[in-house]
Amino acid sequence: MEEVDVKKYLERFSNTTVDFYIQTGNYGDALILNGAWQVFKDLNIRTNDITIDSPVGNNVLIINGNGNFIDLYEQVRDIVIKNHLLYKEIIILPSTIYGKLQQPLLQSLKEHVTIFCREKMSYAFVKEHAVNCKVYLWHDLAFYNHMPTVPEGVGELNAFREDDEKFLLKKPANNIDVSKRGSQSTPLDEFIKILGAYKTINTDRLHVCIGSAMLGKQVNFYPNSYYKNKAIYEYSIKDKYPKVKLFEPGFFEVENFLFKKIGKYKRSIAFRLGLRK
User: Fold this and answer.
1) Considering the entire predicted model, what is its pTM?
2) Where are the beta strands (DSSP E) in the chain?
3) Which of 120, 143, 166 is a domain's end point?
Protein backbone atom coordinates (compact mmCIF):
# COMPACT_ATOMS: atom_id res chain seq x y z
CA MET A 1 0.00 0.00 0.00
CA GLU A 2 1.37 3.37 -1.03
CA GLU A 3 0.90 6.19 1.47
CA VAL A 4 1.23 9.71 0.08
CA ASP A 5 0.69 12.83 2.18
CA VAL A 6 -2.16 14.54 0.36
CA LYS A 7 -1.01 18.00 1.44
CA LYS A 8 2.46 17.45 0.00
CA TYR A 9 0.89 16.04 -3.16
CA LEU A 10 -1.15 19.21 -3.62
CA GLU A 11 1.86 21.52 -3.21
CA ARG A 12 2.33 21.63 -6.99
CA PHE A 13 -0.98 23.54 -7.22
CA SER A 14 0.18 26.29 -4.88
CA ASN A 15 -0.64 29.78 -6.19
CA THR A 16 -3.06 28.40 -8.78
CA THR A 17 -6.85 28.13 -9.13
CA VAL A 18 -8.64 24.77 -9.38
CA ASP A 19 -12.25 23.73 -9.79
CA PHE A 20 -13.50 22.26 -6.51
CA TYR A 21 -16.53 20.02 -6.02
CA ILE A 22 -18.14 19.87 -2.57
CA GLN A 23 -20.85 17.25 -2.15
CA THR A 24 -23.81 18.18 0.03
CA GLY A 25 -23.76 16.54 3.43
CA ASN A 26 -24.10 16.94 7.18
CA TYR A 27 -22.12 18.52 10.01
CA GLY A 28 -19.50 15.78 9.74
CA ASP A 29 -18.88 16.82 6.15
CA ALA A 30 -18.26 20.35 7.44
CA LEU A 31 -15.34 18.95 9.44
CA ILE A 32 -13.93 17.43 6.23
CA LEU A 33 -14.50 20.62 4.26
CA ASN A 34 -12.87 22.83 6.87
CA GLY A 35 -9.86 20.50 6.82
CA ALA A 36 -9.68 20.88 3.04
CA TRP A 37 -9.92 24.66 3.30
CA GLN A 38 -7.09 24.64 5.84
CA VAL A 39 -4.90 22.73 3.40
CA PHE A 40 -5.80 25.08 0.55
CA LYS A 41 -5.11 28.11 2.74
CA ASP A 42 -1.71 26.77 3.78
CA LEU A 43 -0.80 26.12 0.14
CA ASN A 44 -2.45 29.23 -1.30
CA ILE A 45 -4.65 27.19 -3.60
CA ARG A 46 -7.63 29.19 -4.85
CA THR A 47 -10.87 27.34 -5.62
CA ASN A 48 -13.68 27.82 -8.10
CA ASP A 49 -16.50 25.91 -6.40
CA ILE A 50 -18.65 23.99 -8.88
CA THR A 51 -21.86 21.96 -9.02
CA ILE A 52 -22.69 19.11 -11.35
CA ASP A 53 -24.15 21.62 -13.82
CA SER A 54 -21.14 23.99 -13.85
CA PRO A 55 -18.99 24.41 -16.95
CA VAL A 56 -15.30 23.56 -16.78
CA GLY A 57 -13.47 26.56 -15.34
CA ASN A 58 -9.91 25.30 -14.88
CA ASN A 59 -7.69 22.44 -15.99
CA VAL A 60 -7.81 20.66 -12.65
CA LEU A 61 -10.85 19.35 -10.75
CA ILE A 62 -10.46 18.46 -7.08
CA ILE A 63 -13.30 16.52 -5.46
CA ASN A 64 -13.56 16.94 -1.71
CA GLY A 65 -12.98 13.97 0.60
CA ASN A 66 -16.14 12.07 1.43
CA GLY A 67 -18.01 8.91 2.33
CA ASN A 68 -20.37 9.45 -0.59
CA PHE A 69 -18.63 7.29 -3.21
CA ILE A 70 -20.51 4.13 -2.20
CA ASP A 71 -23.66 2.36 -3.36
CA LEU A 72 -25.90 4.18 -0.85
CA TYR A 73 -25.32 7.55 -2.53
CA GLU A 74 -24.95 9.05 -6.01
CA GLN A 75 -23.47 12.57 -5.84
CA VAL A 76 -19.77 11.82 -6.24
CA ARG A 77 -20.33 9.02 -8.72
CA ASP A 78 -22.46 11.35 -10.86
CA ILE A 79 -19.92 14.20 -10.83
CA VAL A 80 -17.12 11.81 -11.83
CA ILE A 81 -19.21 10.24 -14.61
CA LYS A 82 -20.01 13.65 -16.08
CA ASN A 83 -16.57 15.22 -15.77
CA HIS A 84 -13.83 12.59 -15.88
CA LEU A 85 -13.09 13.18 -19.58
CA LEU A 86 -13.41 16.98 -19.46
CA TYR A 87 -10.44 17.84 -17.24
CA LYS A 88 -6.72 17.57 -17.72
CA GLU A 89 -6.43 16.22 -14.17
CA ILE A 90 -8.87 15.05 -11.50
CA ILE A 91 -7.99 14.42 -7.86
CA ILE A 92 -10.36 12.78 -5.41
CA LEU A 93 -9.30 13.69 -1.86
CA PRO A 94 -9.28 10.98 0.87
CA SER A 95 -12.54 9.07 0.64
CA THR A 96 -14.23 5.78 1.38
CA ILE A 97 -15.10 3.98 -1.86
CA TYR A 98 -16.81 0.64 -2.33
CA GLY A 99 -19.70 -1.20 -3.96
CA LYS A 100 -20.72 -2.88 -7.19
CA LEU A 101 -22.07 0.35 -8.67
CA GLN A 102 -18.61 1.91 -8.45
CA GLN A 103 -16.78 -0.87 -10.26
CA PRO A 104 -17.63 -0.02 -13.92
CA LEU A 105 -16.83 3.66 -13.33
CA LEU A 106 -13.51 2.93 -11.63
CA GLN A 107 -12.57 0.57 -14.47
CA SER A 108 -13.26 3.31 -17.04
CA LEU A 109 -11.09 5.99 -15.41
CA LYS A 110 -7.80 6.96 -17.07
CA GLU A 111 -4.33 7.86 -15.83
CA HIS A 112 -5.19 11.55 -15.36
CA VAL A 113 -7.33 10.61 -12.32
CA THR A 114 -5.76 10.34 -8.87
CA ILE A 115 -7.71 8.77 -6.03
CA PHE A 116 -6.86 9.05 -2.35
CA CYS A 117 -8.48 6.49 -0.05
CA ARG A 118 -8.79 7.15 3.66
CA GLU A 119 -8.53 3.56 4.84
CA LYS A 120 -7.04 0.29 3.69
CA MET A 121 -10.19 -1.54 2.61
CA SER A 122 -11.17 1.17 0.15
CA TYR A 123 -7.57 1.33 -1.07
CA ALA A 124 -7.58 -2.40 -1.87
CA PHE A 125 -10.96 -2.11 -3.60
CA VAL A 126 -9.93 0.88 -5.74
CA LYS A 127 -6.54 -0.61 -6.61
CA GLU A 128 -8.32 -3.72 -7.88
CA HIS A 129 -10.76 -1.86 -10.13
CA ALA A 130 -9.16 1.50 -11.05
CA VAL A 131 -6.21 -0.11 -12.76
CA ASN A 132 -5.31 2.95 -14.84
CA CYS A 133 -5.45 5.52 -12.03
CA LYS A 134 -2.94 6.62 -9.46
CA VAL A 135 -4.25 5.36 -6.11
CA TYR A 136 -2.87 6.43 -2.74
CA LEU A 137 -3.66 5.94 0.93
CA TRP A 138 -3.92 8.89 3.32
CA HIS A 139 -5.89 10.12 6.31
CA ASP A 140 -9.27 11.83 6.38
CA LEU A 141 -9.06 15.58 5.79
CA ALA A 142 -10.82 16.23 9.11
CA PHE A 143 -7.48 15.65 10.83
CA TYR A 144 -6.13 18.88 9.25
CA ASN A 145 -8.46 21.01 11.39
CA HIS A 146 -6.99 23.13 14.18
CA MET A 147 -9.29 22.37 17.10
CA PRO A 148 -9.58 24.66 20.14
CA THR A 149 -8.83 23.69 23.73
CA VAL A 150 -12.07 22.90 25.57
CA PRO A 151 -12.91 21.96 29.19
CA GLU A 152 -12.98 18.32 30.22
CA GLY A 153 -16.79 18.43 30.21
CA VAL A 154 -19.29 16.42 32.25
CA GLY A 155 -21.58 13.48 31.59
CA GLU A 156 -22.12 11.42 28.47
CA LEU A 157 -23.49 12.34 25.06
CA ASN A 158 -25.26 9.72 22.95
CA ALA A 159 -24.79 10.84 19.35
CA PHE A 160 -25.94 7.97 17.14
CA ARG A 161 -27.01 8.14 13.52
CA GLU A 162 -30.61 7.59 12.45
CA ASP A 163 -30.17 6.85 8.74
CA ASP A 164 -29.34 3.91 6.46
CA GLU A 165 -25.79 3.63 7.79
CA LYS A 166 -26.85 2.93 11.35
CA PHE A 167 -25.89 -0.38 12.93
CA LEU A 168 -27.79 -0.13 16.22
CA LEU A 169 -31.42 -1.04 15.68
CA LYS A 170 -32.63 0.92 18.69
CA LYS A 171 -31.21 4.33 19.46
CA PRO A 172 -30.38 5.02 23.11
CA ALA A 173 -32.30 7.43 25.32
CA ASN A 174 -31.61 11.14 24.95
CA ASN A 175 -29.95 10.64 21.59
CA ILE A 176 -28.66 13.76 19.83
CA ASP A 177 -27.63 13.06 16.24
CA VAL A 178 -25.20 15.98 16.18
CA SER A 179 -24.37 15.52 12.51
CA LYS A 180 -27.97 16.32 11.53
CA ARG A 181 -27.75 19.76 13.16
CA GLY A 182 -25.71 21.23 10.35
CA SER A 183 -24.66 20.82 6.73
CA GLN A 184 -21.32 20.73 4.97
CA SER A 185 -21.32 24.54 4.90
CA THR A 186 -22.33 25.20 8.53
CA PRO A 187 -19.65 26.83 10.71
CA LEU A 188 -18.20 24.39 13.23
CA ASP A 189 -18.94 26.52 16.30
CA GLU A 190 -22.05 24.65 17.46
CA PHE A 191 -20.53 21.27 16.58
CA ILE A 192 -17.54 22.01 18.82
CA LYS A 193 -19.73 23.56 21.52
CA ILE A 194 -21.94 20.46 21.78
CA LEU A 195 -19.06 17.98 21.87
CA GLY A 196 -17.02 20.18 24.19
CA ALA A 197 -19.70 20.16 26.89
CA TYR A 198 -19.39 16.41 27.56
CA LYS A 199 -16.69 14.22 29.07
CA THR A 200 -17.63 11.06 27.16
CA ILE A 201 -19.10 10.70 23.68
CA ASN A 202 -20.89 7.53 22.56
CA THR A 203 -21.30 7.55 18.79
CA ASP A 204 -21.35 5.69 15.49
CA ARG A 205 -20.81 8.94 13.57
CA LEU A 206 -17.28 8.94 12.17
CA HIS A 207 -16.72 12.67 12.33
CA VAL A 208 -18.36 13.05 15.72
CA CYS A 209 -15.73 10.52 16.82
CA ILE A 210 -12.89 12.33 15.06
CA GLY A 211 -13.97 15.76 16.30
CA SER A 212 -14.37 14.46 19.85
CA ALA A 213 -10.99 12.72 19.75
CA MET A 214 -9.29 15.91 18.57
CA LEU A 215 -10.96 17.77 21.45
CA GLY A 216 -9.48 15.27 23.91
CA LYS A 217 -12.72 13.50 24.82
CA GLN A 218 -13.31 9.93 25.87
CA VAL A 219 -15.07 8.24 22.94
CA ASN A 220 -16.89 4.93 22.73
CA PHE A 221 -16.94 4.38 18.98
CA TYR A 222 -19.51 2.03 17.45
CA PRO A 223 -19.64 0.49 13.95
CA ASN A 224 -21.80 1.74 11.12
CA SER A 225 -23.59 -0.51 8.63
CA TYR A 226 -20.42 -1.37 6.69
CA TYR A 227 -16.67 -1.35 7.32
CA LYS A 228 -15.97 2.42 7.29
CA ASN A 229 -15.82 3.18 11.01
CA LYS A 230 -13.65 0.24 11.97
CA ALA A 231 -11.32 0.69 9.00
CA ILE A 232 -10.67 4.37 9.74
CA TYR A 233 -10.28 3.63 13.44
CA GLU A 234 -7.61 1.05 12.60
CA TYR A 235 -5.76 3.31 10.15
CA SER A 236 -6.01 6.78 11.66
CA ILE A 237 -7.36 6.78 15.22
CA LYS A 238 -6.25 3.84 17.29
CA ASP A 239 -2.57 4.69 17.61
CA LYS A 240 -2.98 8.47 17.90
CA TYR A 241 -6.04 8.84 20.12
CA PRO A 242 -5.92 6.27 22.96
CA LYS A 243 -9.03 7.74 24.61
CA VAL A 244 -11.11 6.35 21.72
CA LYS A 245 -12.33 2.80 22.27
CA LEU A 246 -13.84 0.79 19.44
CA PHE A 247 -16.96 -1.21 20.29
CA GLU A 248 -16.83 -4.61 18.58
CA PRO A 249 -20.31 -6.13 18.21
CA GLY A 250 -20.86 -9.70 19.34
CA PHE A 251 -22.83 -12.43 17.62
CA PHE A 252 -26.20 -11.33 18.98
CA GLU A 253 -25.76 -7.77 17.72
CA VAL A 254 -24.71 -9.03 14.27
CA GLU A 255 -27.58 -11.50 14.18
CA ASN A 256 -30.14 -8.81 15.02
CA PHE A 257 -28.62 -6.51 12.43
CA LEU A 258 -28.79 -9.16 9.69
CA PHE A 259 -32.39 -10.02 10.50
CA LYS A 260 -33.52 -6.41 10.55
CA LYS A 261 -31.57 -5.07 7.57
CA ILE A 262 -31.59 -8.07 5.25
CA GLY A 263 -34.97 -9.57 6.13
CA LYS A 264 -36.38 -13.05 6.24
CA TYR A 265 -35.33 -13.92 2.68
CA LYS A 266 -31.66 -14.01 3.60
CA ARG A 267 -31.85 -15.29 7.15
CA SER A 268 -30.04 -18.42 6.03
CA ILE A 269 -26.89 -16.26 5.85
CA ALA A 270 -26.89 -16.04 9.63
CA PHE A 271 -27.11 -19.83 9.88
CA ARG A 272 -24.22 -20.27 7.47
CA LEU A 273 -22.13 -17.83 9.44
CA GLY A 274 -22.83 -19.77 12.60
CA LEU A 275 -24.67 -16.83 14.16
CA ARG A 276 -27.90 -18.76 14.74
CA LYS A 277 -28.61 -22.43 15.36
Assistant:
1) 0.90
2) 17-21, 46-50, 60-63, 89-95, 113-117, 134-137, 156-159, 200-203, 218-221, 244-246
3) 143
